[in-house]
Design brief:
The chain is of the alpha/beta class. Helix content is 44%, strand content 15%. The protein folds into two domains: 260 residues, Rossmann fold; 164 residues, Four Helix Bundle (Hemerythrin (Met), subunit A), CATH 1.20.120. Helix 1 links the parallel strand 3 and strand 4. Helix 4 packs across helix 6. The radius of gyration is 25 Å and the shape is elongated. The protein starts with a strand and ends with a strand. Bound molecules: adenosine monophosphate (AMP) and zinc ion. Adenosine monophosphate binds next to helix 1 and strand 10. The site of adenosine monophosphate has 17 residues, from helix 1 and strand 10.
Length: 485
């Protein structure tokens, strides 16, 4: 079995092979923090999460980098309109960085509630201006830029493979209508690397640069920050499909222009949109899009929304409706009921937040075959609908021991993230002394660490000490399980 991913670059399913053995560098375009994320945006980060957790389960050490855009993103991705951050700050009578800080916290609050793992590196654009300037200097030195009307532009005519990602043809681009309104551009698709104050007199954040005092274009931040943390070439880059024709196309052009290395990124993953009625959702649309909090206010658990997202494949458009969300809530409630019943029966207490560390295949007893099918589903371009179906067939199997069912389900849920382990633990802890449980879990975790560090003496000491207190341990696929003897 091999993980296959649909690579937008080439438009085909490809077997995933990492650039370096055992390691994956992954960059996902993060939010522009001028408003709350709408539930469509959150679909993009749910894909990041499933990808990272699937790779982790396959044993890769994943470096997951996400940017926070707090400068330079104009309302039109093609350099038209006003800086989204500046506009939002003006409307709210606040400083740009206050706005950025507030919505960044709101964003991570949402992702946390959706069980979306925090990136390894979160990088703010305004903290990386120097990296961007240095990258632009390289692009300039290699002859890919021109300066006119106060702005430094990337000249796409110097980069013959421009548009490969989006299957755009250069001749068509040249013949294209000039919609950008920027008369200084030699080609309509040329884009700004560095703006000077000539663009907006009220630009709040500006920096000195070799091209004058100003601010960076939006695209350059992703190239500069991804390469800073992942190297000149890396494995995977993701974002919503709206980013294919402009943002990601421009990222590739400027990155490869700067380094001369190809391909910059090996696999490009793009999630389709979540749609309401007809058309896309926009953070800035009238009345704004729905937020996760608005779903919570209507009585949904954030994980009901996660279930809803996973029930569709990321490359298919997903139509949001409250009826569909109700369906997801009911399904998740049944899942929880089942897990609670199994936990009651078996007395298994999962250690929460246990790391996977690329578990060995097998050893799950009668649940093995189900886990294989589950992995095979994710191998098929991260098919979460099939993976969810796999979880259900396991839970419905009355023939295999409840312990195997529960353990298998908890292992699957490390990727699916539907809160099953918490539910199982909640059952076991019912009426119990929570401090006691926490202490035991701490010791169990310490022992796990000791084992990982091959300090078996210490590991055995902890096991014996726990045994004396009537606690039995079982090293298994869902980490170490513990229960009263
Ligand atoms: P933004 O904060 O506007 O830069 O968008 C954040 C992420 O959400 C990007 O990867 C977008 O492509 C993605 N995105 C925006 N709208 C939607 C939507 N309706 N459904 C899914 N993804 C979206
Ligand atoms: Zn980006």
């Amino acid at each position: 079995m091999a993980l296959t991913l649909f690579n937008t670059l080439g438009r085909e399913l490809q077997v995933f092979e990492s650039l370096f053995p055992g390691r994956v560098g992954f960059y996902g375009c993060g939010p522009t923090v001028y408003n709350y994320a709408h539930i469509g945006n959150l679909r993009a980060y749910a894909l990041h999460d499933i990808l990272v957790k699937t790779l982790t389960r396959r044993g890769y050490e994943v470096t997951y980098v996400m940017n926070i855009t707090d400068v330079g993103h104009l309302s039109g991705d093609n350099d038209s309109g006003q800086d989204k951050m500046v506009k939002s700050a003006e409307e709210r009578g606040k400083e740009v960085l206050e706005i950025a800080d507030f919505y960044t916290r709101a964003f991570f609050n949402d992702t946390e509630r959706l069980n979306i793992q925090r990136p390894t590196v979160v990088c703010k654009a305004t903290d990386h201006i120097e990296d961007m300037i240095n990258l632009i200097k390289k692009i300039e030195a290699r002859g890919f830029t021109y300066f006119t009307g106060g702005n430094l532009y990337f000249d796409i005519s110097r980069f013959p493979s421009y548009g490969d990602l989006a299957l755009l043809r250069m001749e068509e681009l040249r013949a294209g209508v000039r919609t950008g309104l920027d008369a200084n551009k030699r080609n309509p698709q040329d884009f700004v690397l560095w703006f000077t104050k000539s663009k907006f007199e009220n630009q709040a954040l500006v920096w000195d640069s070799p091209w004058g005092r100003g601010y960076p274009g939006w695209h350059i931040e992703c190239s500069a920050m991804s390469m800073k943390y992942l190297g000149d070439q890396f494995d995977i880059h993701a974002g919503g499909i709206d980013h294919i024709p402009i943002h990601h196309t421009n990222e590739i052009a400027q990155s490869e222009a700067a380094t001369g290395k190809h391909p910059w990124v090996r696999y490009w993953l793009h999630n389709e949109f979540l749609v309401m009625d007809k058309g896309k959702m926009s953070k800035s649309s009238e009345g704004g899009g729905l937020t996760l909090q608005s779903l919570v206010d209507s009585g949904y658990d954030p994980l009901d929304y996660r279930y809803f997202l996973l029930s569709g494949h990321y490359r298919s458009q997903l139509q949001f409706s409250f009826e569909a969300l109700d369906g997801a809530r009911n399904a998740r409630r049944s899942l929880l009921d089942r897990v609670r019943a199994l936990a009651d029966k078996t007395g298994i207490v999962p250690v929460l937040e246990e790391k996977t560390d690329g578990e060995e295949a097998g050893g799950y007893g009668k649940a093995d075959a189900y886990l294989e099918a589950f992995d095979a589903a994710l191998d098929e371009d991260l098919s979460t609908p099939k993976a969810l179906a796999g979880l259900w067939t396991l839970l419905r199997d009355g023939e295999i021991p409840p312990k195997a069912v529960l353990t298998g389900a908890l292992v699957m849920d490390r990727v699916l993230g539907l809160g099953l382990a918490k539910e199982a633990a909640g059952v076991w802890n019912r009426g119990e002394d929570l401090d006691f449980n926490r202490e035991i879990e701490g010791l169990v975790g310490e022992r796990w660490e000791a084992k990982k560090n091959k300090d078996f003496v210490k590991a055995d000491e902890i096991r014996d000490a726990l045994k004396k207190r009537g606690i039995l341990l079982e090293d298994g696929p869902a980490g170490t399980l513990w229960r009263r003897g």
